[in-house]
Design goal:
The protein is an alpha/beta fold. 38% of the residues lie in helices and 16% in strands. The protein contains 10 helices and 16 strands.
């Protein structure tokens, strides 16, 4: 097995990111030491995935502190920089969560902030392994077919986290146990995170997979080729409604019709109990050009408009299981993601 991918790390003076826009063709890195460049990298998806954004948010506070020192920012300028970072991708809860997790330590100094951010990164990877274990246990207790064939949407592996992965971490754990058959990877239009990133990660692990058009997902499920669908999440509301990459809702509807489990895997930090339902989750709308062109080449007639929501919301009633590092909730049966201490894992 190859060395684990590290999409986010700290050099001591800058955040080091794998530039995911260059994958799978090229492994390149960005070193970022100012807030404007960090916000730009987040918005152009050089770094993406809820847990990875949480790590970037936490380390971004240290970047802002260093920039404050270099440029002589006042309190207002520093606060504005943190707000720009928090709001760089509004649907993804973990970005603001990461900022807020360390912002209260600013008065203790840069070393304290960096230490806390690195602690969060280490905890995230450990949590991912636990998500993988709990998710694999739940699936193997409920899916009769062996080996288990999985359908997944977008990228939820090491590249979306700080190591190992959430939904793809479950896939990796099934593979480790010898219980995995094949993975059907939705390409994930318009930016092809499935085709470019998930297939890249599965290939590194030697996991057999097919890349398929997003429109093929329902047919794959209803024809009996997939035994379970597993996705990640960018925000989970208090009632179990889940925001994830656009196209996830279609997978959930097909899973219900095909009577296979629809599993959502995410860390506890993605659960937002302050948001009562999916109706209150802010949805990011991205550039029309992403759906009207590819690699700068137009694919639609001049004059066409592009509709480009980055996320959709799957109602909790369609979610068979929500897997975090602490618990498994069977949301569709009425369990909702209240604070972890109020719910015991089955």
């Amino acid at each position: 097995m190859r060395e684990e991918l590290r999409p986010v790390s700290w050099t001591g003076k800058a955040i080091r990111l794998i530039d995911q826009t260059a994958l799978p063709g090229e492994m390149t890195y960005l070193e970022i030491s100012d807030i404007d460049s960090l916000v730009e990298a987040i918005q152009r998806l050089s770094v993406r995935g809820a847990p990875a954004l949480g790590a970037v948010g936490a380390l971004g506070v240290a970047v802002a502190m260093q920039q404050r020192e270099r440029e002589g920012w006042d309190v207002e300028a520093f606060s504005s920089a943190l707000d720009r970072l928090r709001n760089a991708r509004p649907t993804a809860r973990n970005l603001a969560w990461g900022v807020d997790a360390v912002a209260g330590m600013v008065e203790l100094g840069e070393a304290a902030v960096i230490g806390e951010a690195l602690k969060l990164i280490a905890e995230d990877e450990a949590n991912n392994h636990e998500i993988g274990r709990l998710g694999a246990d739940w699936i193997l207790s409920r899916v009769r077919n062996r080996p288990v064939n999985v359908l997944t949407h977008c990228n939820t592996g090491a590249l979306a986290t700080t190591g190992w992965g959430t939904a793809l971490g479950i896939v990796r754990e099934l593979h480790r146990r010898g219980a995995l058959g094949v993975v059907y990877v939705d390409e994930t239009r318009p930016l092809l995170q499935g085709a470019r990133l998930t297939a890249f990660e599965l290939g590194r692990e030697g996991i057999p997979h097919f890349v398929q058009a997003d429109a093929a997902a329902a047919s794959t499920i209803l024809s009996g080729k997939a035994d379970v669908a597993i996705i990640g999440a960018d925000r989970i509301a208090a009632n179990g409604d889940t925001a994830n990459k656009i196209g996830s809702l279609a997978v959930a509807l097909a899973a219900r019709e095909g009577q296979i489990p629809f599993v959502v895997a995410a860390p506890e930090s993605t659960v937002d109990v302050a948001t009562p339902s999916g109706d209150f989750i802010p949805i990011e709308y991205r550039s029309e050009a992403e759906v009207l062109s590819w690699a700068g080449v137009p694919v639609a007639p001049e004059g066409s408009r592009g509709y480009n929501p980055a996320f959709d919301v799957t109602p909790g009633r369609l979610v068979s299981a929500l897997v975090t590092e602490e618990r498994v909730l069977e949301v569709a049966t009425g369990e909702v993601p209240a604070p972890a201490q109020e719910v015991t894992a089955p």
